[in-house]
Design brief:
This protein has 397 residues and is of the alpha/beta class. The chain is 43% helix and 17% strand. The chain contains 15 helices and 14 strands. A hairpin with a 6-residue loop joins β10 and β11.
């Protein structure tokens, strides 16, 4: 016998199948890399956000081992009890120093995940001016930003993607005391970069905070990998910067960097930070090595190679019926349209030994299902050539 509520769930799951929206996990049997062992097959992989290949970098792996030997497997408590390690402290200091040219009086705070960082940041910001705050969110912002704004229970408005005229009108019409403009730095499904200079000018004009989620820019953009702020050479005390450490940095977690007063407010009032066990100190210890590599000559060489791969793919032919979205970042999306079409293309590529997941709603808008191709510095020009040849052989829509 199936209980009525379980029967309803079974019906909903069946509907997802019918709509081509059911998702399944794939088991990986090797380290994150350009070539991975996936359920018994060696596949050329263009799925990962490990943009610099640091997840399997020998020095980072060794630092993780060393961190475990120094600090153990876990932290044992939340940061405000006994879980704040010397490794966490050093990481936060290093991040603040790295970003200080762009964030005056900067301090950084390490979170266990990027999702947690955004939830904790947005809810704490709401606490600075409860009932007298309004958020302005780009239409294509990441789910963690959207959920953080919703959970704040404060008013919010959505402006058209990267549309400064629309945002300007909404900011001008709002009489709320505290305004916060919220945007991705690099949009994770389109690969485009937010117009941050124009956004910052609007925020300064209206006395608003500008919160930038640079999950896909940190480590990749800028001469030394300091992300979108360095890419545009921006500096302002009104900037709030969130960066993740499980993508280009190759390990795990995230951080918020901003003026020291705001960071201290997060320590006092960010519930997702206060009420969770601190991430394993070994992860922070490994991230110190990642951060050093990102800023080093080796990091510059990795970014230079990555840029050459982006140029190689972005100028290569693709099936005429596909829409290539313009991007100078490692995210190179190809929009096919329907769920059926993108699932078919993904399956055909898989038979050719290439793993690219099919991205569908609700991750992207309906009828914009796509192959989200992501490049890494561990890929070679031959890998990209192989990808281009495979794309050409994929059945036209």
């Amino acid at each position: 016998m199936i209980y009525p509520k379980l029967d309803a769930l079974a019906t909903l799951l069946s509907t997802l199948d019918t709509q081509g929206l059911h998702r399944s996990r794939t088991t990986v049997e090797s380290a994150s890399h350009g070539h991975m062992l996936v359920e018994g097959r060696r596949l050329l992989t263009f799925n990962s956000n490990d943009y610099l290949g640091l997840a399997s970098h020998p020095q980072v792996v060794e630092a993780l081992r060393e961190g475990a030997s120094l600090y153990g497997a876990g932290s044992g408590a939340s940061h405000l009890i006994s879980g704040h390690s010397q490794a966490h402290d050093r990481l936060e200091e290093s991040l603040a120093t790295f970003l200080s040219p762009y964030l005056p009086s900067a301090r950084a705070l390490y979170f266990s995940t990027g999702y947690m960082a955004n939830l904790g940041l947005l809810s704490a910001l709401a606490g600075t001016a409860a009932g007298d705050i309004c958020f302005f969110s780009d239409k294509l912002n990441h789910a963690s930003l959207i959920d953080g704004i919703r959970l704040s229970r404060e008013p919010f408005q959505i402006y058209a993607h990267a549309d400064m005229a629309d945002l300007s009108l909404k900011l001008s019409a709002c009489q709320t005391g505290t305004k916060v403009v919220v945007t991705d730095g690099v949009f994770s499904m389109d690969g485009d970069i937010a117009p941050l200079p124009e956004l910052l000018r609007l925020c300064e004009q209206h006395g608003a905070w500008l919160l930038v989620d640079d999950a896909h820019g940190f480590g990749v953009l800028g001469d030394t990998g300091a992300g979108v702020l360095q890419h545009f050479n921006l500096s302002s005390p009104q900037l709030i910067y969130m960066g993740t450490l499980g993508k280009a940095a190759g390990v795990s977690g995230a951080f918020v960097a901003a003026h020291e007063h705001l960071i201290e407010w997060l320590v006092q009032r960010s519930r997702p930070y206060i009420y969770t066990t601190a991430a394993a100190p070994a992860l922070a210890h490994a991230l110190l090595t990642s951060l050093r590599i990102i800023q080093s000559e080796e990091g510059q060489q990795l970014r230079t190679h990555l840029k050459s791969l982006i140029q190689q793919l972005s100028t290569a032919p693709v099936p005429a019926s596909w829409q290539r979205l313009p991007s100078i970042t490692p995210i190179q999306p190809m929009v096919l349209g329907s769920n059926e079409q993108v699932l078919k293309a993904s399956a055909e590529l898989n038979t050719q030994g290439i793993w690219i997941s099919a991205i569908r709603a609700p991750t992207v808008p309906i009828n914009t299902a796509r192959l989200r191709i992501t490049l890494s510095a561990v890929h070679t020009t031959q890998d990209v050539d192989h990808l281009v040849q495979a794309l050409a052989q994929t059945s036209p829509i």
